[in-house]
Prior knowledge:
The chain is α/β, with parallel strands linked by helices. The chain is built from 10 helices and 5 strands; from the N terminus they run E-E-E-H-H-E-H-E-H-H-H-H-H-H-H. A 5-stranded mixed beta sheet has the order 3-2-1-4-5. Helix 4 (96-120) packs antiparallel against helix 9 (198-209), helix 7 runs antiparallel to helix 8 and helix 8 (178-194) packs antiparallel against helix 10 (211-225). The two termini are 27 Å apart. Residues 228-232 have low confidence and may be disordered.
Amino acid sequence: YGLAHRDLSGITALGVDEIQHRKGHKFLTLVYQIDGHCRRLLWMGEERKERTLKAFFTWFGEERSAALRFVCSDMWRPYINVVRRFAGGALHVLDRFHVAMNLNRAVDETRRREARDLRRGGDQVTLKHTRWCLLRRPKNLTPKQRGRLRDLLRLNLRIVRAYLLKEDFDHFWGYNSTTWAGKFLDEWCERATASRIEAMQRMARTLQAHRELLLNYFRAKKEYSSTTPEEY
């Protein structure tokens, strides 16, 4: 009854995400309304393929899709392709959480590789029990973890350079100017590329490939802040 009588008018912002719902690579695609005045789950579909999100837009309808102002998703290429095709008039913003998650994966990959290299050389201690010291936000570390991280940062290791790059990228989200955010992004990618750390170099290429979608974060923030309270 609730679905049959649901009001879908006035939706201008969507969020697209996926969740793993079974063992193995089994996913559901979720689409939410994320307007300031209303946040709710709108639709679920099997898998995370282009045809999955196409099915949502077919259900949603051309008129409602044309009225969208913002769409937020991760960097999953099938989602990006479908949003461009069916909601090309909306600002497509990349989800900040997924960018941070990918940076953490790059740091953890670097840690595992360097720990393996150190163990081969007989060092079983330096990177032992350091995973969460490197992946958690500094403000969330325990006193013991802060001390462990402080000792680790004194060492000339690849993982230290990768960690510092990851933490420095957080400044990107604090910009108000799209132009200056773009300059920071380009400079960060140059440093990551020059680091000779494979995972961070790969991350730099990914971010550069999605440069305009990343900068849409600031364009959307500016447009959203100019919206009157009556609209949101």
